[in-house]
Q: What sequence folds into this?
């Protein structure tokens, strides 16, 4: 996992990260970003029976172009589950056809750096990101800044999507926001409340190793991919091409 160095930025949390997409209702497969109906990520902290299921807004990705690049991810934490089977059901419940496609799995670390937090991640699968990952803004290695959006500022509820569920932060965590738009994800338990909203964005060119963090992913294969084991998913239920080859299906 993350190496230990004297200059290492404080690591608040480490764990497994998974990415999923689903074609729009009525489509049996996706062939481009415009065919995607939902984009989700799951964070599973190490040594914790906790699975954070989050929805990533597609609007910003669809508006991105070659000049502006990836605008980042606006993320809403929809469910915090202790049972991985509940996450699997969430990926399939509303419209079981088309099925969710796993399109990335790897390791992550949340760390502090100069007053903000980074979500550093390294993919284990696919070994070489393909067209799916490029469209969704998933890199083989990423080090974006992670900010938690102030839930009391209604104007910042998301790009055209009002908040329906406000995170039930206790007073001590709510007090951390003050009148700021964004605060660091410190402590990491700010991510343990349904309805919490995050902004994950590459705002500076800073290599993860500059933080003293070097995630070393192990390379999985069809029989050992952790998405099957941790999330209790069946191989026959997940098209493999996006996860192993980076191709749309």
A:
């Amino acid at each position: 996992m993350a190496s230990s160095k004297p200059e290492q930025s404080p690591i608040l949390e480490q764990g497994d990260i998974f990415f999923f997409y689903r074609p729009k209702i009525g489509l049996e497969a996706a062939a481009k970003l415009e065919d995607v109906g939902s984009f989700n990520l799951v964070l599973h902290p190490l040594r914790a029976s906790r699975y954070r299921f989050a929805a990533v807004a597609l609007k910003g990705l669809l508006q991105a172009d070659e000049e502006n690049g990836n605008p980042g991810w606006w993320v809403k934490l929809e469910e915090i589950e202790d049972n991985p089977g509940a996450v699997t059901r969430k990926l399939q419940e509303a419209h079981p056809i088309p099925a969710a496609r796993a399109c990335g799995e790897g390791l992550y670390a949340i760390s502090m750096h100069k007053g903000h937090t980074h979500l550093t991640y390294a993919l284990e699968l696919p070994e070489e990101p393909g067209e799916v990952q490029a469209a969704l803004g998933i890199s083989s290695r990423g080090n974006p800044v992670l900010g938690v959006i102030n839930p009391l500022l209604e104007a910042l509820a998301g790009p055209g999507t009002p908040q329906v569920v406000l995170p039930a932060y206790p007073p001590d965590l709510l007090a951390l926001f003050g009148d700021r738009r964004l605060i660091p994800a410190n402590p990491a338990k700010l991510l343990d409340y349904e309805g919490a909203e995050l902004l994950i964005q590459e705002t500076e060119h800073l290599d993860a190793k500059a933080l003293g963090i070097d995630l070393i992913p192990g390379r999985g294969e069809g029989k050992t991919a952790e998405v099957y084991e941790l999330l209790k998913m069946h191989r026959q239920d997940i098209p493999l091409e996006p996860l192993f080859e980076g191709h749309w299906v």
About this structure: The beta strands are 11-23, 36-45, 51-56, 73-81, 101-113, 116-125, 141-142, 145-149, 182-184, 197-201. The chain has one domain: 11-244. The helical segments are 59-63, 84-92, 131-136, 171-174, 226-230, 241-244.
